[in-house]
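Re: that backbone. Tokens:
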């Protein structure tokens, strides 16, 4: 047994204010980082790097941060996360993908969006673990992104943590709706309960077909980019051991569930 093997995780990152506010989820992420065996490196699939064509991989020595949000308090734009990149790991990721016919490009100039640095700031605040970001492709759907996770699964045996960063539900339109849907919480709970049941029972087929099978799917995800990183994380596991680590809801519509795939 390889004691250095890392899990795969799916984290719901919610609002950018998660990085500054004391909340149930921010406390959970801080505690999670303390519980995990420190990885040698981290690969992040973020909802905010959704590329329609080739897979893009950050390959810089020290990627900058992208503050890809608007209208928030100024201190949020002053946060820093000076973790190193890992060009060698980025190259290895590209080779693993390319060997299976998935064309990938290395980008030495691309920075990390808030789906990367925001949860890592809470989980690993010392910023001393190398990080590589890999793009998702929501247009190609669940199955392709699940395959990406499968292709990168061997890296877990080498001490690399695979992290999907998105949201179990993510309906920002409803957050700012002047006349809120009175059934909102029930729709969120119904969807997240369905996801939890399918994950814990290992029903990969239903999860990959979630657009047709899951209840209230388009209410919870008017667009799919925040759900897709779940499949990147899933793909690196056979779902034989899945744990829901966290369960919370913000603003009645943003479910903040987190899962570990061991």
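Recovered sequence:
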């Amino acid at each position: 047994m390889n004691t250095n093997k890392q899990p795969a995780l799916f984290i719901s990152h919610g609002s950018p204010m998660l990085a500054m506010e004391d909340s149930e989820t921010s406390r959970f992420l801080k505690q999670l980082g303390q519980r995990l065996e420190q990885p040698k490196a981290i690969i992040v699939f973020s909802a905010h790097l959704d590329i329609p064509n080739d897979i893009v991989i950050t390959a810089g020595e020290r990627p900058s941060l992208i503050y890809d949000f608007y209208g928030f308090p100024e201190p949020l734009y002053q946060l820093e996360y000076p973790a190193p990149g890992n060009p060698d790991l980025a190259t290895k990721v590209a080779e693993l993908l390319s060997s299976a016919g998935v064309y990938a490009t290395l980008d030495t100039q691309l920075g990390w969006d808030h789906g990367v640095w925001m949860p890592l700031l809470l989980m690993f605040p010392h910023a001393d673990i190398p990080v590589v970001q890999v793009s998702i492709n929501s247009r190609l759907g669940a199955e392709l992104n699940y395959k990406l996770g499968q292709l990168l699964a061997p890296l877990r045996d080498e001490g690399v943590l695979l992290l999907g960063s998105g949201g179990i539900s993510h309906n920002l339109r409803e957050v700012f709706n002047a006349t809120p849907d009175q059934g909102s919480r029930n729709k969120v709970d119904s969807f997240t309960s369905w996801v939890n049941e399918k994950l814990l029972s290992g029903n990969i087929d239903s999860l990959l077909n979630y657009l047709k099978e899951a209840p209230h799917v388009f209410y919870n995800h008017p667009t799919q980019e925040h759900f897709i990183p779940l499949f990147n994380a899933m793909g690196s596991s056979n779902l034989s051991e899945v744990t829901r680590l966290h369960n919370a809801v913000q603003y009645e519509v943003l479910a903040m569930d987190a899962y570990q795939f061991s």
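The first helix runs from residue 24 to 35. The chain has a mean pLDDT of 94.
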